[in-house]
Amino acid sequence: MDAAVLARLAPALQARWPHLRLRQPPAEDALADLVGTVAGTLRAAVADHGAATLAVSGGRSPVALFEALRTQALPWAQLTVTLVDERWVADGHPDRNDRLVREHLLQGPAAAAQFVPLIAPGPLPTLAEAAAAAEARLAALPPADLVLLGMGADAHTASLFPGSPDLAAGLDPRQPARVLAMRLPDPAPQPAHPRLSWTLPQLLRARALMLPLQGADKLATLARVVADPARPASPAWPIAHLLQQTAVPFTLWLPH
């Protein structure tokens, strides 16, 4: 990351959203710091109420975290893992987020965790059927103890994409649905599959939110989000709707 940009960004973030929790470990310690923070949060949840639910994002960014987290001495049998978004493609397709979780996180001792995918294994249902089934599965789960978010260079999070015809519904604070089918904007992000995504109210049912952020393009996007004077947050920046809220503790993890 550009150290000069980060040096300006951190105080700007805290000036605009003073409730944010910023973690800025040295780059060489970044992964260990993140894994330790996630593992500690899950252990504390198990100690507090006997179980923990972790919701994760897909894409390639969390692979290193997943592979490091699975080596932790956690009470895996008391953990439930689920996803905040999924790509509507056939079971086993390389673009499926649940495949990523199974291959990179739920290995070794971590395989003892209960996994609740958004789309069940087997024949691919219609997008509407998949959304309805995911809604029922999420309704049966307790609030997530920790949601590990991602953010794209377009400021999307989960599969709440700027320009999607369904974005307003996904960001509506009165939205009763936990998960929605999301059509993609035009031009579509890659891979260009329709998605299932948690809604903003479902994300805000969590006990804690965390966004690990690395990469010059994402850092530049975050700087633009912070500089946008729109209050409340503009739909152009879906991530800002989570950054601005104060109901759920939000940790922004920015290694330097």
TrEMBL record:
Its EC number is 3.1.1.31. The keyword Hydrolase applies. Hydrolysis of 6-phosphogluconolactone to 6-phosphogluconate. It is an enzyme of class 3 (hydrolase). PANTHER family: 6-PHOSPHOGLUCONOLACTONASE. Pathway: Carbohydrate degradation; pentose phosphate pathway; D-ribulose 5-phosphate from D-glucose 6-phosphate (oxidative stage): step 2/3. GO terms for biological process: carbohydrate metabolic process; pentose-phosphate shunt. The lineage of its organism: Bacteria, Pseudomonadati, Pseudomonadota, Betaproteobacteria, Burkholderiales. InterPro entries: 6-phosphogluconolactonase_DevB, 6PGL, Glc/Gal-6P_isomerase, NagB/RpiA_transferase-like. It comes from the Bacteria. The keyword Aminoacyl-tRNA synthetase does not apply. It catalyses: 6-phospho-D-glucono-1,5-lactone + H2O = 6-phospho-D-gluconate + H(+). Residues 28-242 form the Glucosamine/galactosamine-6-phosphate isomerase domain. GO terms for molecular function: 6-phosphogluconolactonase activity. This is 6-phosphogluconolactonase. Belongs to the glucosamine/galactosamine-6-phosphate isomerase family. 6-phosphogluconolactonase subfamily. Keywords: Hydrolase. It comes from Aquariibacter albus. Pfam families: Glucosamine_iso.
